[in-house]
Write a structure and sequence with these properties.
The chain is built from 18 helices and 6 strands. Bound molecules: carboxymethyl coenzyme *A.
């Protein structure tokens, strides 16, 4: 609802052009510039979307200054303590927490779809064993649109729902298959007696020759990590999913695009980079050298797992994970894990260093997750894949919200053109 208006006076172009100022339920007001070009002939310029709300959404709220993250109005800390990944997936998709009956129904629907088409294994077998699992995941997701023709009609609400359930259910299976393929183990089918995160660990670590019992401590930690990563409003990969979806692309293709975007080290790829960095630091005594490298403008090195575009305070997910890392390592008898020691010390030093304090660079969600994964025996190339498992719930919820919005349009940004002006074609023989 327009709350106020904003006036724009552009020299020689527009005098007092007026725009509605929209107010959300929380967060900064936004100036609706939809008609700016039509009314004045100018565009806004905001590379990196530093000041641009790209859509309206009811799913996730972040106050970066205060370090607040809420899914559908619930504080992440409370959900982390009381909820589960599957319940949170329902919440993100449908807007409210399910009652017992609805939760049972939803779990059954997700469970029904945990297997993937048997033919998909041949796609996996076409990849080199050393392929990065994110390359496989993006390919596998895109390929699903070739297998599940009964859920790619985006104009059919039932098909959209089926696609949403399929993607949340199948992503752990696809991820575990990528791992099994890399290490030369047979693929392990899902066991639908197990819960979502338990099942994932079962597909990752069991082998046909041995009995395998999933550790409840690890399953709980895994579930917590999935819950914390489930959504994060309009981040790069979610915006990618929305932009891909805005053209009418099928949902599997959209999530494949999101996976590609998540892979980058500035986004989901940071959890893998954190462990590489902690291993490179190697010893607490080397931390000052790395802090200096991170501060140097001549050195491209950054402290991985530090800083965030939105949080200018401690990332609330990192706070939950910091504690979880200590608990899991204690449970596994790895309290003296050298990487955890380096991480704790690094954080302590960075949080008091003027450079990091002035720029409000705090640990983000990726800082502690890798340590937990490593303690669980998960290889670092899989860390971003775990992020993708969790974020699939958010991507799907955001895609669904967009598809249900009657005012949805194809996303088509414009540009500030700085290339050559009109020039004449010169025949190749006459060119200098
Ligand atoms: N180490 C050292 N300096 C940093 C860091 C860092 N990790 N992050 C930002 N800075 C500095 C940067 O050099 C700049 O300094 P100055 O103002 O002197 O030029 C200032 O802080 C602002 O940085 P920016 O690059 O303009 O900030 P941004 O909002 O564009 O970038 C970021 C956000 C997350 C990409 C960045 O902080 C970063 O590269 N962090 C390391 C990678 C990382 O941990 N990514 C995971 C993000 S959280 C999970 C997710 O959402 O996927």
């Amino acid at each position: 609802m327009p709350n106020d208006t904003a006036k724009l006076n552009i020299k020689n172009i527009a005098k007092d052009a007026e725009f509605a100022v929209l107010q959300g339920t929380q967060g900064p007001d936004v100036i609706d510039v939809t008609n700016l070009y039509k009314d004045t002939g100018v565009f806004t310029y905001d590379p990196g979307f530093m000041s641009t709300a790209s859509c309206e959404s009811k799913i996730t709220y972040i106050d970066g200054e205060k370090g607040i993250l809420r899914y559908r109005g619930y504080d992440i800390e409370e959900l982390a303590q009381k909820s589960s990944f599957l319940e949170v997936s329902y919440l993100l998709l449908y807007g409210d927490l399910p009652n017992a009956k609805k939760y049972k129904e939803f779990s059954r629907k997700i469970t029904e779809h945990t297997m993937v088409h048997e033919q998909l294994q041949f796609l996996y077998r076409g990849y080199p064993r050393q392929a990065h699992p994110m390359a496989i995941m993006s390919g596998a997701f895109s390929s699903m649109s070739a297998f599940y023709h009964d859920s790619i009609d985006i104009d059919d609400a039932d098909q959209r729902e089926l696609a949403a359930h399929r993607m949340i259910a199948k992503v752990p299976t696809l991820a575990a298959m990528a791992y099994k393929y890399a290490i030369g183990h047979p693929f392990v089918y899902p066991n639908n007696k197990l819960g979502f995160s338990e099942n994932f660990l079962h597909m990752m670590f069991s082998v046909p020759a041995e009995e395998y019992k999933v550790s409840p401590v690890l399953a709980k930690a895994m579930d917590l990590i999935f819950l914390l990563h489930a959504d994060h409003e309009q981040n790069a990969s979610t915006s990618t999913v929305r932009l891909a979806g805005s053209s009418g692309a099928n949902p599997f293709a959209c999530i494949s695009a999101g996976i590609a975007s998540l892979w980058g080290p500035a986004h989901g790829g940071a959890n893998e980079a954190v462990i590489d960095m902690l291993e490179e630091i190697g010893d607490v005594k080397n931390i000052p050298t790395f802090i200096e490298k991170a501060k140097s403008k001549k050195d491209p090195f950054r402290l991985m797992g530090f800083g965030h575009r939105v949080y200018k305070n401690y990332d609330p997910r990192a706070a939950v994970l910091r504690k979880a890392a200590h608990d899991v390592l204690k449970e596994l008898g790895q309290e003296n894990n050298p990487l955890l020691k380096i991480a704790v010390k690094l954080e302590e030093i960075a949080l008091t260093d003027e450079y990091f304090v002035a720029r409000k660079l705090y640990p983000n969600v990726d800082f502690y997750s890798g340590i937990i994964y490593k303690a669980m025996g998960i290889p670092s190339s899989l860390y971003t894949v775990l992020f993708a498992i969790a974020r699939t719930a958010g991507w799907v919820a955001q895609w669904k919200e967009m598809m249900e919005d009657p005012s949805q349009k194809i996303g088509r940004p414009r540009q500030l053109y700085t290339g050559a002006k009109k020039r004449k074609y010169v025949a190749i023989k006459k060119r200098k």
